[in-house]
Write a structure and sequence with these properties.
single chain, alpha/beta, Rossmann fold, Aminopeptidase, 2 domains, five-stranded parallel sheet, five-stranded antiparallel sheet, 7 helices, elongated
């Protein structure tokens, strides 16, 4: 967990905004301070700092590279009128006195390999998926009813692990959204998955969701999808969302209608997008191996809170 955010400055250009940022961070409960460095000399970091709980914001690319090599979690700090590259640094901030503290937390979590918390609803927590979720997913998908209208997991768990590693590295890290894990607030039990994905050939993000059989008919899907749609509108600035319901899936069709979606046509979609075994690098299956299904295409304009 992030405890300390230390701003390391080699010049005076960012002093004012750094002081403003520290004041906000301290009010939010973080240990934060500004350290001045001579040239690109290493800063005199407090001995009490725990490396695994600290984010360093550094205004010099060479210093950032050195500290990263020493095992620190480092983000760049750049004046708005400067475009110097920060090699090897995942996140670069500017105007940090206006940055929401949660953005620093998310930068730290990405570097530390920790899942982002996305949403909390009345009964659920929605967060990024981790490798530890796979056993729960296989238990959920073991019920044949779960794959009647959607593609299941890879038969070989090693294929699924390779796929999930790529998904975390290539989708979460670059897009900042995806299909997330749904857990119960009361005990952390994994009950399903939900979130957004990009489908090739379509203009808008796609909402997808799945709730395991033991937790169906209790309102979880409606609760979670409403929150995710509001998140899409308020955080991701989406103005329209699509979803695809396989023909015959009347339960999901009614749920989507309650959320405000309206059918606009049909579509034939590839269901085994990356093949029946996973070869890596999210390489899509060729046309000769593709397995397709017929789906109802539905859209929702994001003008207000999701349907009640």
């Amino acid at each position: 967990m992030l405890h300390s955010i230390i701003i390391c400055l080699t010049s005076e250009r960012c002093v004012r905004e750094a002081v403003g940022a520290v004041a906000r961070l301290v009010l939010c409960g973080f240990d934060s301070q500004v350290l001045h460095c001579e040239g690109n000399a290493l800063p005199m970091l407090p001995e009490a700092l725990r490396q695994e709980e600290t984010l360093l914001l550094v205004d010099d690319p060479q210093l950032a590279e050195t500290l990263t090599a020493q095992g620190w979690y480092v983000s760049g700090l750049q004046p708005v009128d400067c475009n110097d590259p920060f090699p090897g640094v995942q996140v670069v901030f500017s105007e940090i006195d206006e940055v929401d503290p949660d953005s620093f937390v998310k930068a730290y979590e990405r570097m530390a390999g920790l899942p982002w918390h996305i949403l909390t609803t009345e009964r659920c927590i929605i967060r990024e998926t981790t490798m530890e979720d796979l056993d729960s997913f296989y238990q959920i998908y073991a019920d044949p009813a779960m794959t009647r209208y959607m593609e299941g997991l890879y038969e070989d768990p090693e294929d699924e692990r390779r796929y999930l590693r790529d998904y975390i590295d290539k989708v979460y890290a670059f897009l900042g959204f995806g299909i997330w894990t749904v857990t119960l607030r009361q005990d952390g039990t994994v009950i399903g998955r939900a979130g957004y994905s990009i489908r090739e050939g379509f203009e808008h993000l796609e909402l997808g969701f799945l709730i395991g059989t033991p937790w169906q008919r209790q309102g979880y899907a409606l609760e979670v999808c409403r929150a995710i749609l509001d998140y899409g509108r308020d955080v991701l600035a989406l103005d329209q969302v699509e979803t695809f319901v396989k023909e015959g899936n009347e339960v999901s069709l009614r749920l989507c209608e309650r959320l405000g979606f309206r059918a606009v046509g049909e579509a034939e979609l590839v269901e085994n997008l990356y093949g029946d075994t996973y070869s890596g690098d999210m390489k899509r299956v060729g046309a000769e191996e593709a397995r397709c299904g017929r789906y109802i295409r539905m859209t929702l304009r994001m003008t207000a809170s999701a349907g009640k």
